[in-house]
Amino acid sequence: MTQKVLKPLFLLMISWAVTGITFFGCNPIALAWYSAGNILPVFGVVIAPVMAGGIYFYQGFLPMCKYTMIILMTYVCINLYKKWAKNPNPFILAGISVMTMVVMEGADFYMNNMASLHWSTFKMLTYIPIIMLNWSTTIIFAYGINKFMVQKKLSPIDDGMQNVDAEQVLKTAKAFKGIASKMQYINSEYNENFQNEYLENHINECVCSGCANSEIQYMERARLNYLWFSKMVETREAMASQFNEVSKIVEKFLRPAISEDLLTDRMAEKIQRKFREKKIYAKKIRVVKNEKEYIEVEFYAKKKKRAKATVRMMTDIISRVVGKKMRMVNLEYGNIPLEYGKFQLLEEVNFHTLQGSAKTVKRNEQVSGDNFTYLVLDKGQTFMSICDGMGSGSVANEYSGIIIDLLEQFMDSGLNENTILRLINSVLLTKSGWDISTTVDMGMIDLYSGTCRFLKSGAACTFIKRGNWVECIKSTSLPIGVLNEVDVETITKKLYDGDFVIMISDGIVESLQCDDKEKEMANVIMDIESNNPKEMALIIMNEAIKLSGGVPKDDMTVLVTGIWRKH
User: Fold this and answer.
1) Which phi and psi angles does 297 have, rounded to 5°?
2) DSSP string for 420-457
3) What is the 8-class DSSP label of residue 290?
4) Tell me: the pLDDT tens digits for 524-541?
5) Which of 146, 155, 258, 536 has a beta carbon 3.0–4.6 Å from 288's, enabling a disulfide?
6) Sign of the four-CA dihedral 426, 427, 430, 431
7) pTM
């Protein structure tokens, strides 16, 4: 606040001082200062009377009248230019300053032309350095004032925006760190196993140990050359894909992330006033609309030592001020702290979801090759996914688990689902020849609109149950990790109150002993009368085991998500 007062006051003092600097009856420094000062909004109007008073004080009434005319003419010309150009150019400002000075001083010279020819010639020659001085000082003053005033410290709102972007970029960086560690783990483990198994098998087939040694050396060189070549090609392709995705991510963050079309300052002041009534102190309040046009509020708050204020009380106050029901997210405190802590609220969602799951292992296996996840994201979305690793057992479980782990990390970073699949696909392409392709079934429910976006890569059919009606969402795409470009099918469906999304792995479908397995599974789902997601998942699992003769012939996973409107 002190700087906001002292800086303009300092500029006004300079405005008064420069009016006393004259050269041969002219005042180019004062005109240069005034022209440069016009880069600041309204400032040109404020310093005009100050400079007129200074000229009167130093030079008298007639010079004041002359230079007031020059100042007014300069003000009009510069404002016409500023309407045409959004960012005033100091060189053009200098040109306007010189032009107005030459016109007015020239008129004054013409009216006083009764002087001797010698004096007139001398006067004209003195104008050349005066014009150069006016031009150069205007440019210098323009840059100086811009540095002094325009490039100020960010406001709390802008500072908050930068903090949000920084946190988002940090999450993305952590996700990329995770993907790098997975790549190192996959490659190192495979190379070690390949080397040991290959050498052991080759030695057993050799006739003598001497032959074996020479064969080992020869084959080792050939193997290394081949591995390096293959890895170089695959890594090039993967890096190209990842760099492409990174460029898209950077572009996304460089675009304006929020729209400040709300009366932010007015709302912030009202929130602060309401908080103070409850003995809550808040700062850096940011009220904006996000890219989906939903309200976000972010601030730092603390309470007085004996205040009875609660987090729920803050939420209710903000809801009344913004006119929308709000919800607290990323809550780090059970109560309002005594020192400033960060709080974030988002507009309340219209739907909520519940999930139920069932899982069983293939006969004679210890672990399932399937993995799944269910996440309710702070941004107002529910994410669910099933990954089915090729084959079964610990290997399939390990790599489907890696995919699920990467999905969860990337979802937390806020990346687009298609981008996530392309990045994961590039990880699988760096597998050094080990076939670890995995089917991926993903669903993202928007809890504001109720729409669900399905992304399927080689996955089994997904079902939507609405009363006695069942819809099957099929996919003909290939698993990820097979092609350089990820093969993904995207389908968007509108969900309604009481709908259920049923995701299943291949083992469930393959258990059915009929030609049209998707239709038979739809009939099984249609006959379910329960509205409990967990019970529905168990019913589907038990029916699949029953149809496969009581013994699971493959890993089986069912994930049921129910959606209901909030009242």
Assistant:
1) -130, 130
2) HHHHHHHHHTTSTT----EEEEEEEEETTT-EEEEEEE
3) -
4) 999 999 999 999 999 999
5) 258
6) negative
7) 0.60
